[in-house]
Each structure stands twice: as structure tokens, then as C-alpha cells.
Amino acid sequence: MIRNVVFDVGGVLVRLRYRPFIQYLGEAGVDLSDLPAWLATIDLDAHERGELSAQELMGRIVASAPRPLDPRELERLWLDMFERWGEMFDLATGLMGRYRVYLLSNVGDLHWAHLNAQYGIEQVGHGAIASFRVGATKPSAAIYREAERRLGLEPAATVFIDDLERNVVGARACGWNAIHHQSPLETRRSLRSFGVWLPDAFRED
Description:
- Helices cover 47% and strands 14% of the residues.
- The chain has helices spanning 19-27, 35-42, 44-48, 54-63, 71-79, 86-95, 109-119, 131-134, 141-151, 165-173, 184-193, and strands at residues 4-7, 14-16, 82-84, 100-105, 127-130, 158-162, 177-180.
């Protein structure tokens, strides 16, 4: 029986809008033809593990640009890439009366502070694991095990929702039930398949 529902944040509770940020970098001559390689160059993963401060990350981004970047505009665009996904927020908060609801996010300190100030993200659910606070990122088993330890999760009684397949695979490897989020409707149907009761607002699905 499912007792815990764990939500990813970016791509699940908030939509991601990278285009203005990517466009700004492109206009400064940053080669983003291989985005994963560029992210490895600035070491975004280290930032999301809490090993690299936001200031250091911004410095690396500035250094990667052939032409000057305005640090204030860069930070503004870095923060302004989220849009609250009301339907998913309603789902998460609507489940709180019957289930333990938690958040598990790969995120750096600057984005987390912004999400909390803008959307009160830490008030969604009964607790949150932010990767920069625990020194591990999905899909590493370490972050799922740390979530189990800190939140008292039993893997078989937990269902996890993430928009990235690799993170879903990582959760399943740790014995969690998991849903690859592709649309709110499909996610709700998947939750039902696990026997999760949904709030009245979604009964017509």
C-alpha cells in the first residue's frame, strides 16, 4: 500500500523555460550545440551537490562566454526559468490529507531560494530533500537512500514522480515505485494504478 508520494520539482511542479537564458548565452557566443557537454564544463552537477556556490557557478558561466555578459542580467535569467504548474501543485497539496507528500529535487541554493520565495515550495508537502543540502543528486542511489533515512520512507510504500527517465530508473533500482511524468493526466492515471486515492477535483479523469 502506498503511503508516501514524492514529487520532483523542476518539470513536475514547475514548468521549465530555458529559452531566454539559452538565447542570452548564444548571443554572447557561447557554443551550446552540445548542451550536456557545456553543463559538464561549468559543472552544474557539483553546484547541485552543494560543492560549488551560486557565485562560483555564475563566474564559470561568464568565463565560458566569448563576449561579455552582464552578471545581473545573467542571474535574472537564471532565476526566471520557472512557471508554477497549478494543476500539479493542486495534486500535491490535495494528496496531503491522506498521504505523506515530499519533494526530491536536483537543485542549487540560488534556485531553491528563488522557488521558495516565489512559490513557497517548502510549504508543498511534509518535507523536502534538496540535492545541494545532502551532497548527492538523482539518479545516484545515495540521494534516494538519504531521503529514506531523513523522511522515514519505506521504498515499497513510496511512489516517486519525475520528468526524467534516468531518475525514475534510479528510484526503481532502490525499490521505489516510480512514474515518468509526461503530462498531468497520465501521471494521475499512473497514481491510480498504484491504488492512490486522488482528490475530488480529479475524479472526472
